[in-house]
Structures are given as structure tokens and as C-alpha cells.
Amino acid sequence: MKILVTATSFNPKNNTPALARLSEFADEIIFNPMGRPLTEDELIPLLADCDGYIAGLDFITDKVLAACGKLKVISRYGVGVDRVDLEAAKACGIKVCNTPGANLHAVADLAFSLILSVARRIPTLDSKTRAGQWPRSMGTEVYGKTIGILGLGSIGKAVAKRAQGFDMAVMAYDPYINEQYTKDNNITAASLDEVLRQANIISLHLPYNDETKNILNREAMQTMKQGAIIVNTARGGLIDEAAAYELLESGHLGGLGLDVYEKEPPSQSPLFGLPNTVLLPHTASHTLEAVENMSNMSVQNLIDVLSGKACSYTVV
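Given the sequence above, the corresponding C-alpha cells read:
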């Protein structure tokens, strides 16, 4: 068995039980040589003669899959499968699995950290203090405010619980919302427009697809309260970054916290120059606990499929 591993936090430098299990199972393991998500042209020669693939955030297109005749399973190191052409995988008879819940608390923690960091401009104050300055900055409190959660899946629910610890009122929009859950957990289910108009803070936890692309476009963000904050730890492309820049510069938006971008890594983004932004390098799932969970689950999924067993987390 030949296996390709492209998830950047699952590498031979980390001597983990998951890596040991994979090494025992596989005859050969190839690791990501770039330290970043791979392009089509970079991925094809590495994957062409592999039986299994533990995938990071690479774009796994029909062109890639057509060139990989031996491939039997794509085991996503994470939950999102929006960068995998699922129809092409199904047509090629390739199983696609993921690791739901593995990074749940890591992402929820970071989302709330971004909310606090943007509200109090913590990174800016830290850098100025380190530079010998003694700045004064007027932040805003999150205690008692209204948070709007777009996407009430497992991570959205975890963010809601953290917000309720700050006595925040929680509103949620999700096209597939579980209204019984919202009633039982003191969450107001509402339309997208209602959430945007009423919330002081918006936290994004939606998948990226044709329906959610630029769900926060210029028009949507203009309906938000003056000084509202947006954080995105879900997927780049949910926010129109150019429109967000203009609304941040004008003061209509109070702040923006991003861990994901339309283009990754971002280069020369005008957002870099704004003091009311906190910008992170797609790091939400990078905790010791989440990495261990994702490593164990992705390896188990891959071994199950290649051993002819049922995989509990098969997407297609």
C-alpha cells in the first residue's frame, strides 16, 4: 500500500501513535513536500500511483482524480469536503471520508478568541506595547451583546455555549436548523436578514458552496448594525473581502477577524493595513488535541476502507 499524506500538521516530525499505525499498515508513505495545500499540478505526480490519501486542504479536482487510477480512498484530515470534487470521486469509485467533531473545540475556542481580540484590538495593543509605546484604545464589550451564528452545526453550537457564558443573546441562521435544539438551548432561530440586522457580532460556521459563496456581500453587510463585528473561522469565500474592506474603512463595520480567506495564503490584501482587523493563518484546528483527534480518525478511516471494512464517516 502506498499512501500520500498532505495535511501539513500530520508529518514525520510528529512521532504520534497515528503515524505509527499508518507506518505499520502502509508499505510506503509520502508526505507533503511543500508545507502548504498543493495545486493540481503538484498533487498529480505525488498521488498518481497511491492507494490511499490523507488529504489536507488541497483542491482535489476531477483532473486530479482522473489521473489517479489506483486511488481507492480520500481520507480528509478535517471535516470540510468543499475542496473535493465529490461527484468525480463517486464516478471513479473513490471513497471520501472525513473527521467530524475532531477539531470542534479548537475551532470554537479560536472563533471566540477572535471575537474578543477584535472587540478589544488585543493584537494591535500588544504590538505597540512591545514597541515601547503606551497606547490607549477604546474597545467594546461583548458581555450582554447579541451574537448571530451563521451555521448551527456542531461548531456553531459550541460557539453559542461559549457566548452564553458571557450572557450574550444568541441568534442563529441555518437553512437546516433544528428548531427543537434552539428552543431547548435558548437560541433564537431567525432568517439571515433578521440575524444580520439585530446582531452585534456575526460568527460564520457555514460550509462553502454555490449557495453560501459571498453570503456576506456588500448588500448583506450594509444591513448590519453600525460598528458590528464579523469573524470567520469556516471557509474563505463566505465574505466579499473587498466590500468588507470598504465598510471597515468607512466605520460601518467595527471589526473583522479572519482565519480563512478567499485566496490562501492572502497576498498584499488591503485588510493588512487596517487597525480593526485580526488576521490569522488558517490555524483554528491547530491544537495538540485537535491534531491528535484528526490524525487518529483520518488514519482509522483510511485503514478501514483499504481493509474492506465499513467506515463510519464516509461522505460518498
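DSSP finds twelve helices and twelve strands in the chain. Try to locate this feature in the C-alpha cell string yourself.
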